């Protein structure tokens, strides 16, 4: 993670046409379920004592001084960019990642830590199950990328039988997610919800009016959390 962070900083400096020696204020996030427990350790891990870091990326040398690391709860930061939701008394946030579905409820725009849950129902589990079902029923070995394209309703040359299985499994995965969220104590039929993360586009395509959900907003941009961190830090620096 640390090496990927350095690579990301290098790419950002190049994208902005800045010098490769720079001071950087880093904004990052943690799941709310572990935010209080891991915040200090994670900040220390990224800050590395506040000393300049010299590294080479794609043949170019960089010297980066992390002046500070500011951490925010995942999901919450992204929701703050949706101003139309801030008037809602309660909002459910479901961040569907690769391995887990992280849940929390906002009451009057404030995260309710007692409601935080993490379910092991991420998109990778869905894709693995689909891969097995397709192989078992058709003998074909489709790729993860093919499965994701079909789940998102994008064009993909594929055996019709395999495509039908993928679409059917996408709906079953959606039903499993909705059921697990409800069982965890989040009433999606009574409270507006924000669905985000890599799995948001899957649910957006497979949720139907018959599910009877309250208002839903789908944040399908996988950079939604990062955009939220940047926006919050920008506001704090402006003040």
What is the fold's blueprint, element by element?
Layout: H1 2-15, E1 21-30, H2 32-47, E2 53-57, E3 60-73, H3 76-79, E4 90-96, E5 101-107, E6 110-119, H4 123-138, H5 144-151, H6 160-183, E7 193-196, H7 200-206, E8 216-219, H8 224-238
Parallel strand pairs: 1-3, 4-7, 7-8
Antiparallel strand pairs: 2-3, 4-5, 5-6
Structural class: alpha/beta
**Mean pLDDT across every amino acid position:** 90
Instruction: Indicate the radius of gyration in whole angstroms.
Output: 20 Å
Helix content: 40-55%
Biggest beta-sheet profile: 5 strands, mixed
Residue share in β-strands: 25-35%
| Overall shape | globular
Q: State the helix count.
A: 8
Strand order of the largest sheet: 6-5-4-7-8
Structure description:
Helices cover 44% and strands 26% of the residues. With 239 residues, the protein is α/β, with parallel strands linked by helices. The strands form 2 sheets. The protein has a 5-stranded mixed β-sheet with strand order 6-5-4-7-8. Strand 7, helix 7 and strand 8 (216-219) form a beta-alpha-beta unit. The longest helix is centred in the C-terminal third of the chain and has 24 residues, at 160-183. It starts with a helix and ends with a helix. The relative contact order is 0.14.
In short:
The chain is an alpha/beta fold. The chain has eight helices and eight strands, in the order αβαββαβββαααβαβα. It has a five-stranded mixed beta sheet. It has a three-stranded mixed beta sheet with strand order 1-3-2.
């Amino acid at each position: 993670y640390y090496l990927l962070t350095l690579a990301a900083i290098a790419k950002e400096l190049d994208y902005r046409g800045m010098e490769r020696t720079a001071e950087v204020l880093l904004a990052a996030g943690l799941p709310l379920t572990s935010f209080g427990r891991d915040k200090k350790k994670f900040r220390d891990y990224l800050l590395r004592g506040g000393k300049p870091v010299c590294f080479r990326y794609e043949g170019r040398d960089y010297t980066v001084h992390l002046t500070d690391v500011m951490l925010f709860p995942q999901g919450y930061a992204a929701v703050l960019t949706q101003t139309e939701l801030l008037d809602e008394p309660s909002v459910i946030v479901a961040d569907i990642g690769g391995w887990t579905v992280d849940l929390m409820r906002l009451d009057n725009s404030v995260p309710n830590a007692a409601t935080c849950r993490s379910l092991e129902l991420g998109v990778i589990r869905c894709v693995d199950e689909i891969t097995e079902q397709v192989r078992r029923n058709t003998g074909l070995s489709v790729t993860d990328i093919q499965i994701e394209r079909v789940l998102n309703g994008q064009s993909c040359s594929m055996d019709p039988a395999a495509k039908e299985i993928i679409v059917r499994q996408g709906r079953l995965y959606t039903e499993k997610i909705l059921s697990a969220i409800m069982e965890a104590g989040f009433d999606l039929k009574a409270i507006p919800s924000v669905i985000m993360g890599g799995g948001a586009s899957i649910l957006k395509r497979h949720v139907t009016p018959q599910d009877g959900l309250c208002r839903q907003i789908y944040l399908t941009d996988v950079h939604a959390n990062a955009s939220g961190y940047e926006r919050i830090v920008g506001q704090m620096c402006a003040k």
